Recover the amino acids of this structure.
């Protein structure tokens, strides 16, 4: 039981660290963080669109954050690493936070969802799915789903290839939950399907040409 309590305590602390970093680096295009334990330290990797705003001049911000992690969250010897998110519109963490922020500003959730779909697909995604749940557009809670492109919902590709993120929007009627799922690399089965479709189109073209040639020869004979 003591081990279970330890895992629960660590999970709660990790969630608090995530919220702290998200608020601290919102202007830097913060995506998410990964916390890993090593034999000598705790490694915290922060992903953001503008890592320079997190690092600061001469790494000044890094030193301040490390000190805060020690004092506020009780981390011993934390090591902070900052990684750049090169294409933010393909990052479900950034997109989900953007949707939440737009809903909190009063923008219609349907408009926000369709704009998000357009942004993600224009960035080169294979597929994207957005789910918004809560009191949206009325007093009754409900769930609305939006999608574009090709996306796997079950099986190994859905677990390994599809990136999923969650965010919350706090509005007058309560909390609105947002889930964003993005597939950036086409699975092998999709590539195979495209090859089959292209092959089928070529076969149809050959057959049509064959029929036309037979017809022309018949007219000449007559």
């Amino acid at each position: 039981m003591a081990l279970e309590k330890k895992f629960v305590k660590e999970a709660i602390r990790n969630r608090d660290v995530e919220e702290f970093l998200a608020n601290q680096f919102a202007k830097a295009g913060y995506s998410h963080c990964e916390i890993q334990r090593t034999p000598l330290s705790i490694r915290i990797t922060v992903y953001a669109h503008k890592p320079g705003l997190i690092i600061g001049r001469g790494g000044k911000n890094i030193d301040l954050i490390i000190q805060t992690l020690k004092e506020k969250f009780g981390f011993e010897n934390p090591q902070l690493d900052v990684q750049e998110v090169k294409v933010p519109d393909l990052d479900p963490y950034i997109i989900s936070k953007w949707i939440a922020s737009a809903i909190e500003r009063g923008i219609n959730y349907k408009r926000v969802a369709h704009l998000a779909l357009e942004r993600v697909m224009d960035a080169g995604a294979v597929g994207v799915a957005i789910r918004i749940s809560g009191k949206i557009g009325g007093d009754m809670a409900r769930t609305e789903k939006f999608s574009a492109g090709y996306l796997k919902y079950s099986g190994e590709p859905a677990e390994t290839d599809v990136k999923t993120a969650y965010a919350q929007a706090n509005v007058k009627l309560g909390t609105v939950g947002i889930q964003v799922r993005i597939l950036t690399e086409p699975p092998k089965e999709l590539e195979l399907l495209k090859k089959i479709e292209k092959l089928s189109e070529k076969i149809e073209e050959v057959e049509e040409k064959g029929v036309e040639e037979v017809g022309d020869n018949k007219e000449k004979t007559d």
